[in-house]
Amino acid sequence: MKPGRRRHAALAMLLSLACHQVLAAGDAEPDAGAAARGALIYERCAACHALETDRTGPRHCGLVGRRAGSVPGFDYSPAMRQSKIIWTAANLDRFLKAPLAMVPGTAMGYDGIKDQRERRDLLAYLAKAGQGARCRAVPAAAGPPAARPMAHQRPAR
Amino acid sequence: MTTLIKLEEISHAVPRRAFLTRSGLLLSGTAVALLSGRDALAAKSGKGAESDLRILNTALGAELEAIAAYQVGAESGLLQKPVLDLAVSFQGHHKQHADLLYKTITQLGGKPMAARDKYVFPVETLKNQTDVLRFAASLEKGAVSAYLGAIPVFGNRDLSKAAGSILGDEAMHWAILRNAVGDVPVPDAFVA
Known about the structure:
The structure holds 2 protein chains of 2 kinds. The relative contact order of chain A is 0.21. By secondary structure, chain A is mostly helical. Chain A has one domain (3-142): Cytochrome c-like domain (Cytochrome Bc1 Complex, Chain D, domain 2, Orthogonal Bundle), CATH 1.10.760.10. Chain A contains 7 helices and no strands. The radius of gyration of chain A is 15 Å and the shape is globular. Chain B is an all-alpha fold. Chain B has one domain (44-180): Ferritin, CATH 1.20.1260.10. In chain B, 58% of the residues lie in helices and 0% in strands. Chain B has 6 helices and no strands. Chain B has helices at residues 7-10, 37-45, 49-75, 83-107, 129-150, 157-180. The longest helix of chain B has 27 residues, at 49-75. Chain B starts with 6 loop residues before the first helix and ends in a 12-residue tail after the last helix. The A-B interface holds A 43-48, 50, 52-57, 77, 98, 100-101, 105-112, 114 and B 6, 9, 12, 50-51, 54-59, 61-62, 65-66, 119-122, 138-139, 141-143, 145-146, 148-154, 192.
């Protein structure tokens, strides 16, 4: 599949999963303001993460759809590297609710975002930011491009 | 925030650990050691010890990064006195946090992570003093959230308490930096 189509497919999957979760919770549809609110939630991650660059935690450009523990050169915990998780919206939702419960042994020593609406907004932001100009300017992280089949490849370390 | 504990979360709560009951007040206002010898032994063999070490090491990594960020700010030539002095003093606090985390990790038998050779910050977006202060404020805010998120996941409650102590310091930095750029210094009754 071409990179562009894969991006669209990933986005569509994300949106459908997000809608599914919302409906399951009997909540309102994610509204236009979700990503903007999510940007504020994302400020909680700023001590360790940035979109474009690896910090104490790995960069978040290209996150949706990539394999957990796969950013080349980032020193993940063995638990994360070996988790075999693909970061779908549903998996991100689970992880961000309770990182240590989903990936015991992760180095992300963070209790999680317990509020479902906050997680939904955060995911809307992460999905949108991943498609945005800032992430498109990061070749190695933007994607998932065909050159980086993250689901199968071990990170170059 | 309307409730402190959501019912569905109670089942995940970290159980109070045995050594909690016999540890005294280990962290004074000017704490230099997080754990007394006896508690260190208990903590070393405790069930959550490995996990605590990982959390501490990640916190150390973030502190080292904050130190590097303040260094970039201080050397940018964009900060004027007295703001420059403020930045240097905040950086000093982060050095003390890093020191304490380093010592604690060592005391618990872990291997503290070293500072990286190179940190990447969005320097191209920092064009004046306000930009630098806002960037610093965003890191401090993130640090508050990070320590808040660490408090419930430490197995050893002494470490949770220490995280609370550091959180308080970061929150003061955040408020002062907000004030310095003309934002409402304390925007909310709760941090998250």
